[in-house]
Amino acid sequence: MNHQGRYWHPLEDGRIQCDLCPRDCKIKPGQRGLCFVRANENGQMVLTTYGRSSGFCIDPIEKKPLNHFYPGTPVLSFGTAGCNLTCKFCQNWDISKSRKFDKLQTQATPQAIAQACVKTGCKSIAFTYNDPVIFLEYAVDVARACRAQGIKTVAVTAGYIHADARKEFFAHMDAANVDLKSFREDFYHSLCSAHLDDVLETLVYLKHETNVWFELTDLIIPGENDQDDEIEDMTRWVVKELGPDVPMHFSAFHPDWKMTDKPRTPAQTLYRARDIALKNGVRYAYTGNIHDEEGATTYCHGCGTALIKRDWYELSQWNLNDDGTCKECGTTCAGRFDGPAGNWGRKRIPLKFR
Question: Given Cys at both, which of 32, 64, 65, 142 links 110, Cβ 3.0 to 4.6 Å?
């Protein structure tokens, strides 16, 4: 069903301008913005995917990826369709580029989603698969319903959002994983039709203006954003502007969507990126989409003890006190912890709404 949208204003020629993200789409009556879910209906902005989802699944929180947000706990993941970026390498293109809204589930009210979290024992709800900023109104309503039931909220996003909308959106989030796709403007411009500075503004906002716990993911693509100098620049900026405690995940690319001519990311490239991050002062650097126990493990930055060992998404060792401090030296591990680790493991369970 269509739902009244926020963050827009009318133009003199009958179009409306969407003010949600820096794309500033100017939309004629009956047309949609680039994200394909925000439309001009009789001179009003509407969200066309409110209450409809491309699917629900219970995942380990580490899959988002979030390694420092209630480790070992289950998260109910869902998304809708569409995206406000045009990434040629999209790893979820069947959802984010979808135009087949008839396939979306239609009985996914905020209250039903919150009740599903409670019934299944999920610690949190994740807005993922496609970028939740484009369905802000739906995400916010779901977040409100979930928080009322004591459920934490997680956004998996590229962070491409205007300041006013950003303030409302993240006010309803407890955690986020932000996809920092590159540290070069030409990459964002040519491969995503976006701008790097807008994403960096979101990151600085999250760090200095909110209490949202957030981690970063850098999908490393051979020949595009895998050069040492770029990773050097990115990690130095993160430590300087966001601090050493923001975890960074360097993730392996696989050929997909419109970038099938590139090979999979070699494991050695991810090892190198992690080493550069650690050298530049990032305290928690991880490798992703490969089997690498060392690169998946959380180490104490005080004494070097392995605090949380992981085998893929399954925790195999836990050396944290209930308050998130190292059992060996008492140094605080940055993150959100609440007693012992969960035991959800690697399970991934699809969930149907009726």
Answer: 142
Q: Which helix (H) or strand (E) covers residue 177, if one does?
A: strand 175-179
- Pair type for strands 16-18 and 74-79: unpaired
Model-level pTM? 0.96
Find, among 70, 56, 245, the residue nearest to 150 by Cα: 70
Domains along the sequence of the chain with CATH? 3-47 (no CATH), 55-286 (3.20.20.70), 297-337 (no CATH)
Mean pLDDT by groups of 10 residues along the chain of 354 residues: 93 96 97 95 96 91 98 96 90 54 66 96 96 97 98 98 98 98 97 97 98 98 97 98 98 85 95 98 97 97 98 94 96 96 94 78
Q: How far is CA 262 from CA 255, 266, 327, in A?
A: 6, 11, 44
Looking at the chain, the number of H-run helices and the number of E-run strands are 9, 18
For the chain, helix, strand, coil in percent to 5 are: 30, 25, 45
- d(CA 131, CA 288) in angstroms, rounded, equals 20
